C-alpha cells in the first residue's frame, strides 16, 4: 500500500505550519515504513489532503471517485482563523462552513490535539476524528550549546546581551503586538521575531505596530530550518504569545531544542503542557514579563529536560506508528502494530 500526499497549494502554505506538517507527514510515513508515491494513480491506497483551498476539494473528490481513502487533516479551525489576516474576523463564520464542507469529504479527519478535535466535533463533522500530533523531528531539533556562538554572531548580539525569540506569522493572533509591548518593557534585552507574512494580508494596525517597533526588536523574516534551530539553541528564552493554536509546531521545536519556554495559557495546551512542570505559562503581558525575567536571571527552575521529554513523546517515529494504526482502522493496511491512538466518532 502506498500513500499519496497531495501537494497542491504548497507554494502558498510552504512557509506556514501547514507546510511543515506536510513535510512531517512524509517523514512519519518513512519512519513507519509506509511507502509514499508521487501520484495517486500508482496504487495509492490513501490520499492525504492538508489544505482547504479549492484545488484540494477537487483533489479529494477525484480521490473518492478513484476509490481512494481520503485522509483530511484538520489544521485550521474558525477559532484560529480569527485575528489572522485582513478581514478574517468578518469571514470567520463563512470559513467555518467552508472547512466543515472540506473536512466532511474525508473518510477520516486528523487534527493535532484533543482541543482541536473537540472544536471540529462541535462543527458536526460526520467522519471519525482522531487527534494525532503533527510531531517534531527530535533528531534534527535537539539541544546543542555549540550553536549559541553562531546565533549571537549572526544577529550581532553583544557580550552579555540576552535574547528572547518568537516564531510565527507576523499577525495579531500570534501575539505580535504583545511581543512588541514586552520588548518595550525590557529595553536591555534583544527580541527577535522569526517569520514573515505578506504585508498585503496584514491589517493596518499590525503594520503600524511593526513600523513603530522598539529599537531592541529584530524582525528576522522567514528563515530555513537550520537557522531556526540555531536560534532555538542559541537564544535565552522562547516567548510564544499566540492567542489560539491547534497545536503549535514551533513550540514542539523549541522544547526539543531545550530552550526555556513561556506560552500563553490557552486551552490547546491543557493536559500536555503544564505550568511549572515542563513550560511556564502566562495570561497577560505582565505575567510574560515576570516569567521571562525569571528565566533570564535564573530565579525560576530549569524545566528544559521535562520539555524535551514532551517533544520526544511526539517524535516522528512515535507519530508514524500512530498513523499506521489509523490506516489499519481504516482498512488501508492489512495489519499494524498497536499504538495509542484516540478514536472519536462524531454523531450525525
TrEMBL record:
Supply the SUPFAM superfamilies for this chain.
UDP-Glycosyltransferase/glycogen phosphorylase
* Organism the protein comes from: Oscillibacter valericigenes
Taxon lineage: Bacteria, Bacillati, Bacillota, Clostridia, Eubacteriales
Note the InterPro entries from the entry: Glyco_trans_1, Glyco_trans_4-like_N, Glycosyltransferase_grp1
Full protein name: Glycosyltransferase family 4 protein
Q: Where is the Glycosyltransferase subfamily 4-like N-terminal domain?
A: 43-139
What Pfam families has UniProt attached to this entry?
Glyco_transf_4, Glycos_transf_1
Q: Which domain of life is it from?
A: Bacteria
Q: Which residues form the Glycosyl transferase family domain?
A: 150-298
